[in-house]
Design brief:
This is HSP10-like protein. The protein is mainly beta and 106 residues long. The chain has no helices and eight strands. The strands form two sheets. It has a six-stranded antiparallel sheet, with no helix packed on it. The N and C termini lie far apart (45 Å).
């Protein structure tokens, strides 16, 4: 039996891991219609919730994650470790190298 975590703040990523929370797609169309939950697509965009301290490479150089908390990123469709939270939310843990891109804020 697994115990659900209360919030993402209780998860501390290690090494080069990045904890993200998927951005929810709009359930309302531009014309004002509400879509059923099963018809709303999952976006491949997420917000960084926490990052690990990085790791030391084979040459002894410190390698830190390329993103910071609050960044919006593009994540792969599959992969990562999904963690369910008690409030029906979920967060996903990726390696820094698995993050596809950082989304620039305009």
């Amino acid at each position: 039996m697994s115990t659900l975590l209360k919030s993402a703040k209780s998860i501390v990523p290690l090494m080069d891991r990045v904890l993200v929370q998927r951005i929810k797609a709009q359930a309302k169309t531009a014309s004002g219609l509400y879509l059923p939950e099963k018809n709303v697509e999952k976006l491949n965009q997420a917000e960084v919730v926490a990052i690990g301290p990085g790791f030391t490479d084979a040459n002894g150089n410190k390698v830190v994650p390329q993103v910071k908390v609050g960044d919006q990123v593009l994540i792969p469709q599959f992969g990562g470790s999904t963690i369910k939270l008690s409030n029906d939310d979920e967060v996903i843990l990726f390696r820094d190298a698995d993050i596809l891109a950082k989304i620039a804020k305009n």
